[in-house]
Amino acid sequence: MLINWHDPDHVYLVCGKTDLRKGIDGLAMVIAENYGLELYDNSLFLFCGSRNDRFKGLLWDGEGFILLYKRFENGRLSWPRYSSEAKELSTRQLDWLLKGLNPLPVCKIKTAQPGTFY
């Protein structure tokens, strides 16, 4: 079975590091206990471990869970590491992630306060 990454209604990126030794039950428990998201509503959950060249996905197909594992042979993912939340990705952000770009860019420019001069 080939997976179209854009078929699920929701794609969630689980930020931070996840133990990729976990299987279906362990990853489902991470979602249920830590994020309170619905596992059975055509959602794809993406997890990354300490290495940025691979990730796992968990998808409910209506009959059971599908555990996806992808390893990049010639590149790395730009995965948000310092957050303990699940962010919903748009199709554009998912494409960015699969191309090795950070899907959740951080704004480095701070807004200026009125009347403050440097």
A few lines on this structure:
The protein is α+β, with helices and mostly antiparallel strands.
Q: Which features characterize this protein?
A:
single chain, 118 residues, alpha+beta, five-stranded mixed sheet, 2 helices, 5 strands, 25% strand, globular
> How far is the N terminus from the C terminus?
59 Å
Give the mean pLDDT.
84
Largest sheet strand order: 4-3-2-1-5
Radius of gyration: 16 Å
Architecture blueprint of SSEs:
Blueprint lengths: L9 E5 L9 H11 L8 E6 L5 E7 L4 E7 L14 E4 L1 H8 L20
Parallel strand pairs: 1-2
Antiparallel strand pairs: 1-5, 2-3, 3-4
Walkthrough of the structure:
The protein is an alpha+beta fold and 118 residues long. A five-stranded mixed beta sheet has the order 4-3-2-1-5. It is globular, with a radius of gyration of 16 Å. The model has no long low-confidence stretch (mean pLDDT 84).
